[in-house]
Specification:
heterodimer, A: Helix Hairpins, elongated, B: two-stranded antiparallel sheet, globular
Amino acid sequence: MIPISYFLILSAVLFALGMVAFFVKKDLITMFMAIEIMLNAANLAFITLAKSASSLNGQVIVFFVITVAAAEASVGLAIILLIFKQKKSVKTEDISLMKG
Amino acid sequence: MSDIFWLIPFVPALSALILAVFGTKLPKKYISYQACGAVLISFGISIISFIGLLQTPQQNYPLVKNLFTWIHAGLFKANLSLQFDPLSAVMALVVSLVGFLIHVYSVGYMAEDKGYSRYFTYLNLFTFSMLLLVMASNIVLMFVGWEGVGLCSYLLIGFWFEKHSAATAGKKAFLVNRIGDAAFLLGILFIFIHIGSGEFTAIHQAVGGGAVTQGVATLIAILLFIGATGKSAQIPLYVWLPDAMEGPTPVSALIHAATMVTAGVYMVSRLNSLYAFSAAAAEIVALVGALTAVYAATMALVQNDIKRVLAYSTISQIGYMFIGCGVGAYTAGMFHLYTHAFFKSLLFLAAGSVMHALSGELDMKKMGGLKKYLPLTYPTFLVGAIAIAGVPFFSGFFSKDAILTSAFAKGEYFIWALGIAGAVLTAFYIFRLIFLTFHGKERMKPQVKEHIHESPPVMTIPLIILAFFSFGAGYIGLPAVLGQKLNVFNQFLKLGGHEAHISMGIEWLLILISIAVAFTGIFLAYMFYILKPYVPSMMASKYPRLYKVLYNKYYVDEFYNAAFVNSTIKGSELIYNHFDLKVIDGAVNGTASSTNFSGKILSYFQSGLIKDYALVFLLGVVIFIGYLLF
């Protein structure tokens, strides 16, 4: 049997990768994917801990996270699409309307 | 049935509410019916309640209807409760009857005005406030009515607010009344401090039972009387009333002649035990009344504006009422209030009819010879003039005589002499007005003359009814010399205060003197303005200084302007320039600019780049987790 720590390490690595990608990449689509990776890293941690504690709570939360992620993806992609229509670009440095 | 009297004020209130909300959408005809009908219903209820009152045994007076507790804070307690006793009954009947006639007259007078519904809203609101004033069972609620009529007076004086002089006159009336009302409010507070209740019955008991000292009673009485000088246009606060003639004429008749301005007299009569207890205050009331009676009459002598003459006449007549109250003859004062309400509103309405005929002309120098053009207005005006002049058998004679006789009987010979002097002047100025307006040469402009017409029946019928009352209203208060039993008014009102008695011979003599005085005044006017029309201008040029002083109303307005108004304005400007502009505006602008500055600083953190925000977010999360872990 694979020890729990392996799963947790995998989860941490995935999360770190996602975070790094989020900060390094410049176009919105990739950043979006990075966020998805982070979310799924969190899901993995939830599942692992739920299994080891033999409780259903963690698994239920995962379903919620997946639902929210789906909703967020649809809204987020729609926003990105609109931004692209206006700016002809999805680079973050081109989107600075809120600059004070 | 006798407890429906509390509805009297609320019928016009309801009507005013409906007109205020829907007035502009309703047809004129409906507005007229509703506004007049509401006051007529009030009058009907007043009569029913009056009959009910007569059937009630006297020890049950006053009938009180407590609707609910309005204010209750510690010792300060005021109910919304109305009362009905002879004094309130007389006032309610006079207010609703005269009010109704003037409402009807207004239908004709204001027919062409674009503010028709607004006008009737105000007029109904006024009727409500006035009825509340005279039916309140405690002084706090009375003050509500007192302020309510003041507000309506302001609104109606400034009814044609697009005219600068009307707006200014309204403001002046409001501000001058404020001075009196401030004193009145102080008086109420002293009543609560020393008596502990504003109910009139409680005040009477406290004063009668010796619960207040003479000094306190005098203080309260004088403070309340200052309020009365404001509302009832007595020296020194009378200056607003002549200017109030800027309002529509029916308003002058209703508010500034018949009802509101007599509120002060009603108040003194209502608190008669207080004024009877404090001899000093009563003396002041009588003296102020007498001085005003003569002083205002002298100003009426030389005015050329028909409504201003009547305004000064009103001031003077209210002076007589205060003489009555001051010498302890409260019933005589109230009696004059009651007769005056009829003949003065008649005079105003007839003057309005003259103005109506002459396309709004007010200057008597541009009238004359109107007798044959106005076959209904002239006789009714004449009846009013005869009544006010004090010619026997007309109402004004009985009431004025009752006041002067009481003053003489009390031993106030100086005040009596002033009253007699005022009576000569009254007869003179009112017949001067008659002769200048209706007799003599026609001095109208030709284009005005072409349009002269008698007013429509909706205006003349109220005139005729009022003329009837101006003649006959006095017969319920015949002089004592004809028999005590004949004075029904006196026996009904039964106000406190002792009425000194004098021998019949002296009383007859006094009556003869006042008759002689009335005819002297009329004769002088006849001589000056009909027989020898050149005399007045000759006199004016012979005594130019006297004439100028009178014509310019003793320069009192100028004096008040210089002493109070201008200094207030100057002081306000000083404060405006130095305090408002610098300190207050500085503080406000300082707040704004410091907010602006800090905003500018903070806006540097707002890069608009997602990366930066995410980094700050990450930093926050790290710090948070670090805090949780360690």
